[in-house]
Amino acid sequence: MDFQTSVNEKQRNSDRISNLPDSLLCQILSELSTKESVCTSVLSKRWRHLYLQVPTMDLDCNKFPPDDVFVSFVDRFLGSDNHQHLNRFNFIYDVYDHDASRFKSWINAVVRRRVSHFNLHSETLVNLQLCRVFLNHPESISLPCVKNMHLDMVAYHADSTLETLIASCPVLEELTIIRDPNDLLEVVCVRSRSLKSFKMESERWECNDHAVAIDSPILKSRGFFENNYARKISTVGNMYIFAGTVEVIHEFCEIEQLPQFSSLSHLHACFRVTSWEMLPNLLESCPNLHSVILEFDCLPETEHIDLSAVSVPQCLLSSLELVHLKTPYVVNMQREGRPLTGTSSKMKLAKYFLENGAALKTLTVSASFCNIINKIKSVSRISSQCEVVMD
Description:
Structural class: alpha/beta
Largest sheet: 8 strands, parallel
Shape: elongated
Helix content: 25-40%
CATH topology of the domain at 237-391: Leucine-rich repeat, LRR (right-handed beta-alpha superhelix)
Distance between the termini: 90 Å
Strand content: 15-25%
Number of strands: 19
CATH class of the domain at 237-391: Alpha Beta
CATH architecture of the domain at 237-391: Alpha-Beta Horseshoe
Radius of gyration: 30 Å
């Protein structure tokens, strides 16, 4: 072996990493920070543009003092001629301090490259629209200033994915969800202390196999029950309504009649002491209800509320088979339970279903009814099949 051959052999052995294929080198670089990855471009001609093929990137506009340098760098990385799949893209960007239109084009470029993990943080982003993307881990998204969010045909990893995304927007006021007919959501859970307007559309609701849970106490009653939205949710088969939203519905009942939820089969509603009297109106809007769970945080002791003041809801006459009444049960220092006040109201509530539920098969009451369970069982029932049980 001559001298030159020996030198070449030693060089190959001493730089084994350069002998690796580009695809493997890019995977290795993806474990580094973007800054470290870019620094490898000075190693040789081969490494000069290798960082552009790395499937991950972490970008913080605050670490690029000259704005033109930052813009040039992002434009180059997300260039139209680069169609490589992105595994992870972390982005911190101040829209108002930079070009908002360019920001939109970058997001579109990231989506086109089929990004798997997209972490976005913006302190000033107010309007967010996502169309035909897949969301997996939204807990990595921080959107403290987003007020308007439009989700069009978005696919979600799980029910909690959508719920977490909404929770990441603490000042959210307007939410529009257009569901993908192929999404796997079982429950659309909307929890927001700030939400004022909520619209939802989905053709798949015609299948009557999905539920909506709403906990938005300041949701405007007229906005919540606008004609288009009422038509859409009229095909929901299962619904969970939180106490704050029930109060909004109660206010709406004082203005005009509730829309009909003709496909609603299962209802779970929570009531505060100020809103439980609107129960007949709520049941009247659910003519084909099969089962209902009603939770009351407290019931008034007096009997001034007349549940028989309105006509008997259609569901009580024809379809309602299962009723579950729940009220709190307080435990004192001696660990002995005692029901909250409202004995007469609880009795009236139980009698209302027993005396009017023509199709009723089971009335279940919580342990807080223990002091009147025998009286409840002695009430005459319109349904001969009905039994009273305590859980």
